[in-house]
Automatic annotation (TrEMBL), chain A:
Residues 55-199 form the Radical SAM core domain. Its cofactor is [4Fe-4S] cluster. PANTHER family: FE-S OXIDOREDUCTASE (PTHR43728:SF1), SLR0304 PROTEIN (PTHR43728). The gene is arsS. This is Arsenosugar biosynthesis radical SAM protein ArsS. Keywords: Iron, Iron-sulfur, Metal-binding, S-adenosyl-L-methionine. Residues 212-346 form the Arsenosugar biosynthesis radical SAM protein ArsS-like C-terminal domain. The lineage of its organism: Bacteria, Pseudomonadati, Bacteroidota, Cytophagia, Cytophagales.
TrEMBL record, chain B:
This is Arsenosugar biosynthesis-associated peroxidase-like protein. It comes from Splendidivirga corallicola. Gene3D superfamilies: AhpD-like. It holds the Pfam family CMD. Residues 23-102 form the Carboxymuconolactone decarboxylase-like domain.
């Protein structure tokens, strides 16, 4: 499957997606997200700190998942340069950010990935890598990734939509489940997910369709039981994430005639506690070209931070960014529904 | 006038049945909410029971609601289909067990 962009689908266009999210007849009956925030006294939404520095090092990926909000795939050539990475390191050096969260695409496909990880670790920052698992087996040059991660004490966060092949492969592509199992075993072999090693392996669940995630705690228990019994795999925590109506998942919702119901479901499940804890309040997201966003989802809609002189990593003004208004829209209902959703799972 | 007795959009209006009798509707929805909370049975087990009962009473609204409800409680497709088979077995069994009455009657009137 090609990306939406490669297929020249109109929905690959940011402004077209925003029109669908804000102005289409399907969302006429739900209140604007900002109005919901108004009711609970959170509008404009403000940051609580700068703690997580999320970097999208490129849209290139070895997979083309049905729900991908990045519209990533092998045909995406947008890749962060070493120069932009160097600018990120300059910002990180004297910053309050404790955690650097590397994502993509498949971040490991960026040719400067390993250098970047090593430099971030030299700054004493905790590094998380969002590894899609199959990349470890995609090419012999990636087979040593588990050892590289172990050496640098990287936290590995990996998507596994379900503990059986059917749902996983429907979302992530044929054969992905069995390759993911093999990669998880490789990570376990070097100590990831094993008690006492300090090597953290977290999995990410997201629903394989137009419905909300089950209880994170319940799912974690199910995943641990089945993966141990069927494959002798261990991991630390499961993050349950809600699918946001962006890019390929938005395309799926529209084409399957689920869009209106899904938006209503998200809006009806609005949880003020989840709104208090949304990840954009302590996170910044850096795009492959160095532009700064409130989160990875705003990045994919090209909604840059509301900080006129600090929109690019080369002009990073901590005070301005700490005092900015976070840019919101109806897609944000995905982070405030039910138990809440973030790159680290539920937020309540 | 609708041309069909069932309209999927009507499920969204369920909460408005109090328009004609609010007090009883409030009591019903309060009770309903309590029933489906985690108890000695988990919320997932209750959703699967509801799915099976929905097939027994053949309510399309309930089937839609508890198909999604079961998925949102983390049930697998296999568990959901097994729940439907439980309903099917009981419905089929309920017919078949009356075969005993038929046999009794046959024996009563036959030489």
């Amino acid at each position: 499957m090609k990306s939406l962009k490669a297929r020249n689908e109109p929905i690959a266009n940011f402004s077209h997606q925003i029109d669908i999210l804000e102005e289409s007849k399907e969302v006429e009956n739900i209140p604007k997200f900002s109005d919901k925030l108004n009711v609970i006294g959170l509008n404009p939404l403000k940051p609580t700190g700068l703690e997580i520095f999320q970097v999208n090092v490129g849209k290139m990926c070895n997979q083309t998942c049905e729900h991908c909000h990045v519209d990533a795939g092998p045909d995406r050539k947008e890749i962060m340069t070493r120069e932009t990475m160097q600018q990120c390191l300059e910002v990180l050096k004297d910053s309050s950010f404790d955690i650097v969260d590397l994502t993509g695409g498949a971040p490991e496909m960026n040719p400067h990935f390993r250098w970047f990880v090593e430099e971030i670790r030299k700054l004493g920052k905790h590094v998380m890598v969002r590894c899609n698992l199959t990349i470890i087996l995609a090419n012999p040059k990636y087979n040593d990734l588990p050892e590289f991660f172990r050496k640098h004490k990287i936290e590995v966060v990996s998507s596994l939509p379900f503990y059986n092949p059917d749902r996983t492969d429907r979302q992530r592509g044929k054969g992905v489940f069995s390759k993911s199992v093999e990669a998880l075993k490789m990570l376990n072999r070097v100590g990831y997910g094993k008690e006492g090693t300090g090597l953290i392996l977290n999995l990410v669940y997201n629903p394989s369709g137009a419905f909300l995630p089950a209880s994170q705690q319940q799912l974690e228990s199910d995943f641990k039981r089945v993966l141990k019994k069927d494959h002798d795999i261990e991991f630390n925590n499961l993050f349950a994430i809600t699918n946001l109506p962006i890019s390929r998942f938005l395309d799926y919702l529209i084409k399957s005639d689920n869009y209106e119901n899904y938006m209503e479901k998200l809006a009806n499940a609005f949880n003020p506690s989840a709104a208090m804890g949304v990840m954009c309040r302590n996170t910044l997201s850096i795009g492959w070209d160095g532009y700064i966003f409130d989160c990875d989802f705003n990045q994919m809609l090209d909604l840059k931070v509301d900080a006129p002189t600090s929109q690019h990593i080369s002009n990073f003004d901590t005070d301005e960014l700490l005092n900015r208004n976070i840019v919101t829209g109806n897609h944000c209902y995905g982070c405030t529904a039910g138990a809440g959703s973030s790159c680290g799972g539920t937020t309540t | 006038m609708d041309k069909s007795y069932y309209n999927p959009e009507d499920l969204k209006k369920f909460g408005k049945v109090g328009e004609f009798q609010q007090e009883l509707a409030d009591k019903f929805f309060s009770y309903y909410g309590e029933v489906f909370k985690d108890g000695e049975l988990s919320a997932r087990e209750k959703a699967l029971i509801a799915l099976a009962v929905a097939h027994t009473v053949q309510c399309p609204y309930c089937i839609d609601a508890y198909t999604v409800g079961s998925l949102e409680k983390g049930a697998t497709e296999g568990q959901m289909m097994e729940a439907v088979h439980v309903a099917t077995a009981i419905r089929g069994g309920a017919s078949l067990v009356h075969g005993v009455q038929m046999m009794n009657k046959v024996k009563e009137v036959s030489m």
